[in-house]
UniProtKB/TrEMBL annotation:
Highest taxon above the source species: Eukaryota
Official protein name in the record: RAB6A-GEF complex partner protein 2
Pfam families listed in its UniProt record: Rgp1
Organism: Adineta steineri
């Protein structure tokens, strides 16, 4: 019995453009059954093993019409099985690696297959370890589980013992995508080229000893640039009777795991606000060319929410956390994901009550609100952009295991 352990190093979350590292271990396990048969040291032989990355796209066929994409050259691997697991058995007569065998949906990305070995012999109790690495393309969608479309990434290891069927071992992982990362990689390459020996270094901030690109460092630098605070954004929110409040956000681009911070001022306004609610929402938009019905609307999902009573309040503070498990903003030809802050205001139709004043310090004044207030509500949406985060942080909330163990 051969035990195979596939482990993605550093965790299951990666940024597109980063290099994934995996350790694959093959062990000829000693058991009571094969101990009696292998007393003379008979070895086990594995014909071959190969590794490949791939991304599967699953669509809700009741809502998505893919006939518009039939002219494109994409793989469309279908399976008779309704469910898939991390280990699939390929028919005995198959001796080639088909990474997407047993998968449903459409394959929209595959890396080049890498052959780990051929004709591996393992003595009883012997272990062989192989290391695999592959750079994830930057031209891919992020991992996403939407109502219309889902994108799922897996690392697939195909292996076959002599006179046994081919076994596929799958390890799922998550991919985050940074917009325009290629531009920052090209800038990094130019900076490194200018720092090579024999060339004139025009930039004093470039380290001369750096000779290769660290894809993760470049990605994190790009994230810092895209999410840095440039200036405050001030919005005057009004209805047909005048200004309700003034919203101040410190920035409009946020990273996963960050807090959306801002202030809401009710001073010097025309309309008294009784209560407000702010909800962080994602909006999944399906391209109109692929809709089954023209009346299909965007799929809106709500996440964190903040609600405050603000009658006779001059200022309130906004603080909404962005879950690390969310999918950042992205746009593909089939579907796009946008983010927004959804505001709901409850305003009074009467003017703000004036508190009675009392200059006599020896006595007090009691003020109580009315038993009922004639009110109306209004909504307002503010688009924001959510970017990925450091994959080390996202590993803490990853719901997938980066290790798969099976026997062949």
């Amino acid at each position: 019995m051969i035990e195979v352990i596939a482990e993605i190093l550093r965790g299951p979350v990666f940024i597109a453009g980063e290099t994934l590292h995996c350790r694959i271990t093959f062990t000829n396990k000693l058991t009571e059954e094969n101990n009696s048969t292998n007393h003379n040291g008979t070895f086990e032989k594995i014909s071959w093993a190969s590794v490949q990355l791939h991304c599967q796209r699953y669509v809700n066929e009741q809502k998505v019409n893919l006939q518009q994409q039939q002219h494109q050259q994409i793989s469309n691997i279908k399976s008779n099985e309704s469910t898939t697991t991390n280990t699939d058995i390929v028919p005995l007569d198959s001796t080639a690696l088909i990474a997407t065998k047993g998968e449903t949906g459409q394959t929209i990305y595959t890396s080049k297959p890498c052959v780990l070995f051929c004709d591996l012999k393992l003595q009883p109790g012997e272990t062989q370890t192989f290391n695999y690495q592959e750079t994830i393309s930057t031209q891919v969608p992020p991992t996403f589980r939407g109502n219309y479309v889902k994108y799922s990434y897996k690392l697939t290891i195909g292996t076959q013992r002599v006179n046994c069927p081919t076994t596929l071992i799958r390890v799922p992982f998550r991919v985050l995508v940074i917009p325009d990362l290629d531009k920052y990689i090209r800038q990094d390459k130019a900076a490194i080229a200018s720092s090579q020996p024999g060339t004139k270094v025009d930039n004093p901030f470039v380290c001369p000893s750096r000779t290769e690109i660290d894809s993760l460092t470049t990605a994190l630098d790009a994230l810092q640039i895209l999410s840095c605070r440039t200036h405050q954004n001030v919005y005057n929110i009004s209805n047909n009777r005048g200004r309700v409040c003034r919203l101040t956000l410190f920035k409009n681009n946020f990273k996963l795991g960050e807090d959306i911070l801002g202030t809401i001022d009710f001073d010097h306004t025309d309309v008294p606000c009784v209560q407000y609610t702010v909800t962080l929402q994602s909006e999944e938009n399906l391209n109109s060319n692929y809709r089954r019905k023209s009346s299909q609307l965007s799929n809106i999902t709500s996440f964190t929410k903040q609600s405050e009573f603000c009658l006779s309040t001059f200022q309130s503070y906004l603080s909404l956390s962005i879950p690390l498990s969310c999918t950042p903003t992205f746009s593909m030809d089939l579907v796009s994901l946008r983010w927004k802050l959804h505001f709901e205001f409850v305003t009074s139709k009467i003017s703000r009550s004036i508190l009675p004043s009392n200059s006599d310090a020896s006595s007090s004044t009691t003020w109580s609100t009315a038993n009922s207030i004639e009110a109306e509500s209004m909504t307002w949406d503010l688009p924001i952009k959510i970017l990925p985060t450091n994959p080390y942080f996202a590993n803490n909330v990853a719901k997938v295991s980066c290790t798969t163990v099976t026997t062949i």
